[in-house]
Design a protein that fits this description.
The chain is α/β, with parallel strands linked by helices. The chain is built from 18 helices and 26 strands. Helix 7 runs antiparallel to helix 14, helix 15 crosses helix 18 and helix 16 packs parallel to helix 18. The protein is globular and about 75 Å long. The structure holds 5-amino-5-deoxy-1-O-phosphono-D-mannitol (M6R).
Length: about 600
Amino acid sequence: MCGIVGYIGPKDVVPVLIEGLKKLEYRGYDSAGVAVAGPGCIRLCRVQGKVSALEEALRKSPIQGAYGLGHTRWATHGRPSETNAHPHVDCKGEIVVVHNGIIENYLALKSMLKAEGHVFRTETDTEVIAHLIEKHFRGSLEEAVRAALSTMEGAFAIGVFAVKDPGKIVAAKLGPPLVVGVGDGETIVSSDINAILAHTPRVAFLEDREMVVLDEAGPHFMDFQGKPIDKKIEQIQWNPLMIEKKGFKHFMLKEIFEQPQVIRDTLMGRLSLDQGEVLLDETGLPPAVFRDIRKAVIIACGTSSHAGFVGKYLLESLAGIPADVEYASEYRYRDFILEKDALVIIISQSGETADTLAALRAAKGRAAATLAITNAVSSSIAREAQGVLYTHAGPEIGVAATKTFTAQMTALALVALGIAQAKGAGRVQDRMAVIEELQRLPHKIEQILNRVGPIEELAKQFVAFFHFLYLGRWVNFPIALEGALKLKEISYIHAEAYAGGEMKHGPIALIDEKMPTMAIIPKDRVYEKMLSNIAEIKARSGFIIAVADENDAAIRDHVDVVIPIPPTHPLLTPFLSVVPLQLFAYYIAAKRGADIDQPRNLAKSVTVE
Ligand code: M6R
């Protein structure tokens, strides 16, 4: 939550900061601001609202400076307002701070600083950082920052500069991510690489308790004690064009359409087709781990947990091992019991979700191994897990996850097949059937994407509804959860998801003509059961849209509308059934004029608890 960017170099600083903030806006967008270093002063511009509002304010009252910091906010402490927008300053307006995270002991620090005479102007926890640095400032900004850090508790990534120690930006990390871009005569610090790639592909990822001083000579890395660190500079493969909309109206729609390629990319190099084998060596985990584990514990949040639920079914069916799915936010605080022969699978698109990272840390050392499935190279979760399997989905900008969900399911299918193979579980020809069908999925998704018209038309019919029910069973129960989440988060329509068999235990009381049902009914082992479930809904005047096999002519007698999907291997239907649900949510939200890529109250990367 919140995006930070800082720049020092020959370019005009304000446009660099604004462009950077636009790339980071998915992290929070309720207020934004920039601060630049003028001669002997700090020039600030802050607004409530999005980066576009900041741009407008800067157009009316331009500011210029030699270097600077920018911030886009997702409010934690203090409501969204111009006053609470970052950057924040000390009493004299000579030290400027941007912050991502939460200072947990800010109330104690604030009352101490107030007692010492510091004057606070905002409701934020961040402002204490500016005053702490002011308190400790003796001429060296990095020393003052270090002294301030030693008193701060919580999670933070900060960027700071000061009038009285000019020519430098200091940044520090404990928790939320910070990346440093190392260009030709210029240096950028940012919450993620998106804001850096337009300038350089060469980056260094800060670890917790690391700081960096950016000046004319480039970045100087050190730990919180001031000990210099020799940081590895990595070359990033993503290119800036991957973050453009490429003619699509929204990033979300573009990302839905990228799913066939994402599956191909995530499978690439991980299948040995002549041997019918899955290759998991690149995870870095020894093959014995996959052979010897007897259980899997999957930990994630939100959409990633829905992929985890699909993974549970795949692991049970293909690898024959029990698998539990846990919400990271619950797991981290439980007295959980983790067997030594369990594999912990951590799923996170961003690799930075605070709860997921904390759950990984809690689980580490207590299980056979930890394996991260993430889209973010060198993210905290990727670095801290013992093994990592990257989803090659490319940057996902839409706050609602779509292509990364599909990529996570693909990675989980590979893990399930790899474990089955290592254990010799099941028959080779059954695994081969799944492998072959995985490779056909991109083409089948393309077939769905080639006929979006009827889904868009259908969305028009339901644009004014307030409630929706999503039903699925077995491997498609998680898809019901995911479809409902997509509708909720981008269209703000209330949607509930249930396993079909649960309806009669209470939720069926909700059914009337104002609550349509989206039912996922491919021809699988629970097809007949789902037919009974929807018959019970029809008997109560419920309207039913079915996502069903295109060759299932009989389904039309049971439901009101059918969205057809191509038939596939029963275990892999979620890869297809999720696509119409993503599109349905998208078109409803579009018709409602919602802010699809940046839905209200949300942020892409949830780096606070
Ligand atoms: O980056 P992560 O996969 O760890 O994020 C987890 C959730 O915050 C995320 O999936 C969230 O639910 C999305 N808004 C879903 O669209």
